Amino acid sequence: MEPQKEAGTPRDPVARPPATSRCETPNEEERREGGTAPPAAVLDEESDGASADGLWELPVEPAERRPECSRCSRPQKVCLCPFLPLHPLHISTHLYIIQHPAEESKVLRTVPLLAACLPQDKCKVKIGRRFSEESCS
Protein backbone atom coordinates (compact mmCIF):
# COMPACT_ATOMS: atom_id res chain seq x y z
CA MET A 1 0.00 0.00 0.00
CA GLU A 2 1.09 3.53 -0.67
CA PRO A 3 1.21 6.01 2.17
CA GLN A 4 -1.71 8.38 2.11
CA LYS A 5 -0.99 12.00 1.31
CA GLU A 6 -2.41 14.70 3.54
CA ALA A 7 -5.47 16.30 2.13
CA GLY A 8 -5.37 20.05 2.17
CA THR A 9 -2.73 22.66 1.66
CA PRO A 10 -0.74 24.65 4.14
CA ARG A 11 -2.58 27.76 5.20
CA ASP A 12 -1.36 31.09 3.97
CA PRO A 13 -1.08 33.77 6.60
CA VAL A 14 -4.00 36.17 6.54
CA ALA A 15 -3.06 39.44 4.96
CA ARG A 16 -3.96 42.47 7.07
CA PRO A 17 -3.99 46.10 6.07
CA PRO A 18 -0.81 47.78 7.29
CA ALA A 19 -2.52 50.07 9.85
CA THR A 20 -4.70 47.36 11.45
CA SER A 21 -3.82 45.82 14.77
CA ARG A 22 -5.68 43.13 16.70
CA CYS A 23 -5.90 45.03 19.97
CA GLU A 24 -7.14 48.44 18.97
CA THR A 25 -9.73 50.13 21.12
CA PRO A 26 -12.77 51.80 19.55
CA ASN A 27 -11.22 55.23 20.20
CA GLU A 28 -8.07 54.25 18.30
CA GLU A 29 -10.19 53.02 15.39
CA GLU A 30 -12.08 56.32 15.28
CA ARG A 31 -8.85 58.31 15.24
CA ARG A 32 -7.46 56.11 12.46
CA GLU A 33 -10.65 56.55 10.43
CA GLY A 34 -10.66 60.32 10.93
CA GLY A 35 -13.31 60.51 13.67
CA THR A 36 -12.79 61.94 17.10
CA ALA A 37 -13.13 60.27 20.44
CA PRO A 38 -15.50 61.82 23.00
CA PRO A 39 -13.70 64.04 25.49
CA ALA A 40 -12.98 62.53 28.92
CA ALA A 41 -15.20 65.13 30.64
CA VAL A 42 -18.26 63.84 28.76
CA LEU A 43 -17.52 60.28 29.83
CA ASP A 44 -17.11 61.34 33.46
CA GLU A 45 -20.48 63.12 33.48
CA GLU A 46 -22.23 60.01 32.13
CA SER A 47 -20.56 57.71 34.63
CA ASP A 48 -21.44 59.82 37.70
CA GLY A 49 -23.76 58.16 40.20
CA ALA A 50 -26.88 59.45 38.38
CA SER A 51 -27.69 56.13 36.71
CA ALA A 52 -27.02 54.09 39.88
CA ASP A 53 -29.12 56.22 42.25
CA GLY A 54 -32.31 54.30 41.52
CA LEU A 55 -30.72 50.92 42.25
CA TRP A 56 -30.84 51.47 46.02
CA GLU A 57 -34.59 51.93 45.89
CA LEU A 58 -35.34 48.68 44.05
CA PRO A 59 -37.11 46.02 46.16
CA VAL A 60 -34.98 43.03 47.09
CA GLU A 61 -36.65 39.65 46.80
CA PRO A 62 -35.48 36.96 49.20
CA ALA A 63 -33.92 33.98 47.45
CA GLU A 64 -36.16 30.94 47.43
CA ARG A 65 -34.51 27.70 48.42
CA ARG A 66 -35.33 24.56 46.51
CA PRO A 67 -37.49 22.03 48.38
CA GLU A 68 -35.25 19.62 50.30
CA CYS A 69 -35.69 15.92 50.96
CA SER A 70 -36.19 15.29 54.69
CA ARG A 71 -34.21 12.03 54.64
CA CYS A 72 -31.04 12.79 52.64
CA SER A 73 -31.10 16.61 52.93
CA ARG A 74 -30.56 17.07 49.20
CA PRO A 75 -32.77 19.08 46.82
CA GLN A 76 -35.77 16.96 45.84
CA LYS A 77 -34.83 17.01 42.15
CA VAL A 78 -31.53 15.26 42.94
CA CYS A 79 -32.70 13.16 45.89
CA LEU A 80 -30.65 9.98 46.37
CA CYS A 81 -33.11 8.16 48.62
CA PRO A 82 -34.16 5.65 45.92
CA PHE A 83 -30.54 4.44 45.93
CA LEU A 84 -30.22 4.19 49.72
CA PRO A 85 -31.26 1.10 51.72
CA LEU A 86 -34.94 1.10 52.71
CA HIS A 87 -34.14 0.09 56.29
CA PRO A 88 -31.10 1.19 58.31
CA LEU A 89 -28.10 -1.10 58.11
CA HIS A 90 -27.40 -3.17 61.21
CA ILE A 91 -23.94 -2.43 62.56
CA SER A 92 -22.36 -3.56 65.83
CA THR A 93 -20.34 -0.39 66.52
CA HIS A 94 -21.15 3.23 67.19
CA LEU A 95 -20.03 5.72 64.56
CA TYR A 96 -19.14 9.28 65.59
CA ILE A 97 -18.74 11.76 62.74
CA ILE A 98 -16.96 15.04 63.49
CA GLN A 99 -17.79 17.59 60.82
CA HIS A 100 -16.40 21.09 60.27
CA PRO A 101 -19.16 23.73 60.00
CA ALA A 102 -17.99 24.73 56.50
CA GLU A 103 -18.57 21.15 55.29
CA GLU A 104 -22.20 21.24 56.39
CA SER A 105 -23.22 23.39 53.40
CA LYS A 106 -21.12 21.62 50.76
CA VAL A 107 -22.86 20.31 47.67
CA LEU A 108 -22.10 16.59 48.12
CA ARG A 109 -23.66 16.35 51.59
CA THR A 110 -22.20 12.91 52.30
CA VAL A 111 -22.69 13.02 56.09
CA PRO A 112 -26.53 13.14 55.89
CA LEU A 113 -26.40 10.31 53.33
CA LEU A 114 -24.35 8.13 55.67
CA ALA A 115 -26.52 9.03 58.64
CA ALA A 116 -29.64 8.09 56.65
CA CYS A 117 -28.23 4.59 56.07
CA LEU A 118 -27.46 3.85 59.73
CA PRO A 119 -29.64 3.58 62.86
CA GLN A 120 -29.94 6.90 64.69
CA ASP A 121 -28.68 5.40 67.94
CA LYS A 122 -25.53 4.07 66.21
CA CYS A 123 -24.54 7.19 64.25
CA LYS A 124 -23.85 10.51 65.99
CA VAL A 125 -22.86 13.64 64.06
CA LYS A 126 -21.08 16.48 65.86
CA ILE A 127 -20.57 19.75 63.99
CA GLY A 128 -18.00 22.24 65.23
CA ARG A 129 -14.44 23.52 65.05
CA ARG A 130 -13.12 22.46 68.46
CA PHE A 131 -14.38 19.90 70.90
CA SER A 132 -13.70 19.21 74.53
CA GLU A 133 -14.19 15.79 76.12
CA GLU A 134 -17.36 17.01 77.82
CA SER A 135 -19.02 18.17 74.60
CA CYS A 136 -18.52 14.83 72.83
CA SER A 137 -20.18 12.66 75.44
From TrEMBL:
- Quote the catalytic activity from the record: a uridine in tRNA + S-adenosyl-L-methionine = a 3-[(3S)-3-amino-3-carboxypropyl]uridine in tRNA + S-methyl-5'-thioadenosine + H(+)
Which controlled-vocabulary keywords does the entry list? S-adenosyl-L-methionine, Transferase, tRNA processing
Q: Where is the DTW domain?
A: 66-134
Q: Which GO MF terms are attached to this record?
A: tRNA-uridine aminocarboxypropyltransferase activity
Listed GO biological process terms? tRNA processing
Query: Is this entry keyworded Transferase?
Result: yes
Give the E.C. number(s).
Answer: 2.5.1.25
Q: What class of enzyme is it?
A: transferase
Chain positions covered by the region annotation Disordered: 1-60
Q: Does the keyword tRNA processing apply?
A: yes
PANTHER family named among the record's database cross-references: TRNA-URIDINE AMINOCARBOXYPROPYLTRANSFERASE 2
Q: Its family?
A: Belongs to the TDD superfamily. DTWD2 family.
Q: What is this protein called?
A: tRNA-uridine aminocarboxypropyltransferase
Species in which this protein is naturally found:
Rhinolophus ferrumequinum
